[in-house]
Amino acid sequence: MLWFLATGSNISLPFPHTAVIKALRVFTSTTCSSICVTQTKVEVEDDKSKWSDATELLRKWGCSDDDLVRIFSRCPSLRNADPTQVQSKLCLLSGLGLRASELVKIVNCRPRFFRSRINSYLEERIGHLTSLFESREVLQKAIVRNPSLLLSDGRYNVKATVELYEKMGVKKGDLIQMLLLRPTVISRTSFDAEKLEYLSRTGLTVDSKMYKYVVTLIGISRVETIREKVANFEKFGFSEEEIFGLVGRSPNVLTLSTDKVQRNMTFILGTMKLDAKMVLKQPYLLYANVDTVLKPRVLLALKIQDMDSKWRIIGPTIVSVLRMQETRFLDLFVKCHGEDVANELMDFYKRTKGVKRLGESSKKCSRRGFPF
């Protein structure tokens, strides 16, 4: 059942979901501004006089002032949008059981959601999604993570993508987990001979726990991107067998940028004086933040070793030190000393951690599509 807020009243009135589908079926094929709503059991005549603007409509739909601030900060043009067009999308979301809190996440994820078209295949697409996710709650999570599942621009073939992964040995339950984890699985998945070769070189079988992570990551990645990241690892002396073996054990290395890998490897080799092969056994060294974890803790450990040669922190056990909670790390290596020494070490640690990367404040954040 779909709930709709009547004008001038805070009482929610139900009307059938089929009426919503009928209301959303009649669209022209020109632009997103051509979306219109036909007559339903709940009359929507005189929409423009019913709501003065989109803000009033969203507020009556259940959005708080804080929600509106967050929505308009991501999509300023929505303030001047036609309430009729906004209402059609809100009807769709209500029919799926989504409310104001989910709308904020949807707009934050896809700011142009209200400007995108919904074509006549909506009912069929919702049917595929419902049969795939089986649970209404899981379907809601998937839509919030990737609102494009509801939209259509010729790239979102849900049924074909699901069949492709099932042929590759990914179980339905695992695929659902991956769809929630990586929103671009439906829109970006593609496989060719080169990608299949990369997958086979990881040495994983379809029964492996890591298989679903690796196959979806390779599926949504561009071949050029994979080549670039493999070549970046090769600069530090790794063979392709070692690289794809690492991918099989820790698939998320494929999500790391080349800049991230270069910074971490440079610090590991130059400051920590560890062997490059160490990251094959301890991938955490690649994931840890250089500025807030690696640098302050390693430099503090080196300072402690210089003060007292009995302390041997840098070495094979350094990874366990790096993975500690900060409070535990400080208790074990700073607060255990006398007050004067502890204060000196704490000041050094705070100064080192507070040093920003050169040019970091002026760095522009750019993302191509969804993040991994």
TrEMBL record:
InterPro entries registered for this protein in UniProt: MTERF, MTERF_sf
Bilayer-crossing regions: none
Organism whose genome encodes this protein: Phaseolus coccineus
GO biological processes: DNA-templated transcription termination
Pfam families: mTERF
Single Gene Ontology MF annotation: nucleic acid binding
Classification of source organism: Eukaryota, Viridiplantae, Streptophyta, Embryophyta, Tracheophyta
PANTHER family, A to Z: CGI-12 PROTEIN-RELATED, MITOCHONDRIAL TRANSCRIPTION TERMINATION FACTOR FAMILY PROTEIN
KW Transit peptide (keyword) present: yes
Keywords: Transcription, Transcription regulation, Transcription termination, Transit peptide
Protein name, per record: Uncharacterized protein
Entry keyword Transcription regulation: yes
Record family assignment: Belongs to the mTERF family.
